[in-house]
Specification:
Layout (H helix, E strand, L loop, with lengths): L8 H30 L4 H7 L3 H26 L4 H5 L26
Length: 113
């Protein structure tokens, strides 16, 4: 029995995660490309002159893509609104206190001998 696909909350979250993960991979690939173009630490020459160039490029682009994909996806999930945030928009809460610096007087000593 096949159920029709609805626009449920779980499918929206999955789409959000996949799209942000793909965006993070694109940012990571751009970052890895920028590292190669700017030749930080001579990595471009080391990579392109190596007999293991393909493996080095896969590790560089894969590492950047995996890192930035995870960061962007996790940030998108953590920034989702919660029920508490939606309910508290009506106001009625207390304002946070303003913290001011505390000044302390100190005596200036003369030069040491």
């Amino acid at each position: 029995m096949v159920q029709p696909r609805g626009n449920t909350a779980s499918s929206r979250i999955v789409r959000l995660m996949i799209s942000n993960w793909a965006f993070g991979w694109a940012v990571g690939f751009a970052g890895a490309g920028a590292v190669l173009i700017s030749n930080v630490g001579g990595i471009r020459e080391l990579t392109l002159r190596s007999d293991m160039m393909l493996q080095a490029l896969v590790l560089l682009f894969g590492g950047f893509g995996l890192f930035f994909g995870g960061v962007v996806c996790a940030t998108a999930v953590m920034l989702l609104p919660t029920k508490e945030e939606n309910e508290s928009r009506g106001g009625g809460g207390k304002a946070a206190p303003v913290l001011l610096p505390a000044y302390a007087l100190a005596r200036i000593r003369g030069p040491r001998r």
